[in-house]
Amino acid sequence: MLPGKKLIVAFLEKLLRSKAVIWTLIVLPGLWPLWPIFGSHNPSVLADPLKLVLHHLGFTACLLLVAVLSFSPLRVLFPKWGVALALNRHRRLVGVSACVYGVLHFLTHLVYENGGGATLSKILTTALQKPFQLAGLITLAILIVLAVTSLPVFVRWLGGKNWKKLHRLAYVAAAFAAYHQATGRKIFPQQVLWIFVPLAVLELLRVIRQFQRTA
Amino acid sequence: MLIRTPKDWALRESAATPEKIYRLSHRRDFLKSLGVAGAAFAARDLLAATGGFPTKLNPAYRDAALKPTPYDFITSYNNFYEFGTDKADPKPNAAHWKPEPWTVEISGLCDAPQKIDVNDLVAKMGGVEQRIYRHRCVEAWSMVIPWDGFPLAKLVALAGPKSEAKFVKFTTVLDPKNIPGQREGTLDWPYVEGLRLDEAMNELAFIATGIYGQPIPNQNGAPLRLVTPWKYGFKGAKSIAKIEFVAKQPRNTWNIMAPDEYGFYANVNPRVDHPRWSQASERVIGGGSGVFGSRQRTLLFNGYEKQVAALYQSLNLEKNY
After folding, report:
1. What is the CATH number of the domain that holds B219?
2. Do B295 and A46 touch (CB under 8 A)?
3. Is residue B22 part of a domain?
4. How many domains does the structure of chain B reveal?
5. Which of A20, B36, B37, B57 counts the most CB atoms within 10 A of its CB?
6. Measured between CB atoms, which of A48, A49, A116 is closest to B281?
7. pLDDT tens digits, chain A, 215 residues: what are they?
8. What CA–CA distance (Å, rounded) separates B115 from B129?
9. Closest chain B C-alpha to A213 CA, distance in angstroms
10. In a domain, B49, yes or no
């Protein structure tokens, strides 16, 4: 490796070890819709500003879920890569933030759907009846369970093995999230592929690697 | 005390074209650049669907309770996949598209098939009139749009459909060289829509050539766009190149794409849900105040039950969504 490249990796590793940097990377995307809504006076956004907020929160939740799931395969595949090690320090923070974005996305949905005779119970009934919306609800339910059981009390109570087993549900959540996002539009949105295919490839490579080791 | 009662022909202030937009009109700039400003007659043959203006208000199709959506929203929030799949895409992507001169083909099972220049057509239709219609998208949002144009029934009369003709098929222009979205396989191009002949002859069915009293912008379907306000917006074929009278029910583009989600009739119906969302209510574009916006109840046939319910008396609306 070139000395310059080494320096960049070392710098990146140091940067990503910092909690402040990760917090910034998590919070900033949530603030992004403020710009087109209040800053740019873009009429295609102002036509229905809450829709942008709704979609953006869900999108960010998906990104963070995929990000946190990619950390451990990255470490398995590149055990000496400092960046992968640095990222793995933040698994809980990133995982819980995916859940927080999911919750905000859901709350925005409740506000967005409210009115015109649509009461809370009607909105929830609709959500349970439509596979597209139900997939979102299942994702959210799993993320909430995983976030709550990430509290130290529950980690101890469950014990390492059970905790690990339970938290494999994150993969189920990712599958439902992918379905939810893929069916959210009238034609298949390409972004689903950009977000979820890299994760699927990483997981596949990880499984192959672990299989080779045990064989 | 003087109490001013507005006459029913009086235009509300919101319907007036803001000066900024009036000045920004591309066509006016184009005219000026040719040095023929004021010489509208000379330009008539050059420009598509600028004929027929100024528009005449049709008081029968105005409702004081309807507050027109601001022009900026109507022309910046568009589903026109030919120019991109995001609602913000069509405005910039269609800005330099030239829909002029424009010839529309009227063909199929009719007595007077013809290819006719759009301005000649408008002249034959007796110019344009303005109607304020509700617009309800299948995606559960709505607008109120002051359309300028002419009743479709007049065009049907001009064509003189033969007795075998049962449906009218509308085909959007196919021009992948100049229409970027058509170079991608997003939809089965060209876009096709259809109406039953009696639907096409209903008093509400309208061909728009303008919005807010000025020529219709490219992103809204210049120069000719179908408007059927009791149906979901996707029925409104844009930039129509061909109108055919046919015996068999044509398959419309969205029905081909997703038959379980989009039917042929696409009548607005709060009781028949979309597979992915409820149709009982709708977001009001530009509605409410601030960021939260507003939502209102969706009405059967989008509030035009009186005018169109008779068309569907023997039809199961749940099966024929």
Report:
1. 3.90.420.10
2. no
3. no
4. 1
5. B57
6. A116
7. 567 888 888 899 999 999 999 999 999 999 999 999 999 889 999 999 999 999 999 999 999 999 999 999 999 999 999 999 999 999 999 999 999 999 999 999 999 999 999 999 999 999 999 999 999 999 999 999 999 999 999 999 999 899 999 999 999 999 999 999 999 988 889 999 999 999 999 999 999 998 888 87
8. 23
9. 44
10. no
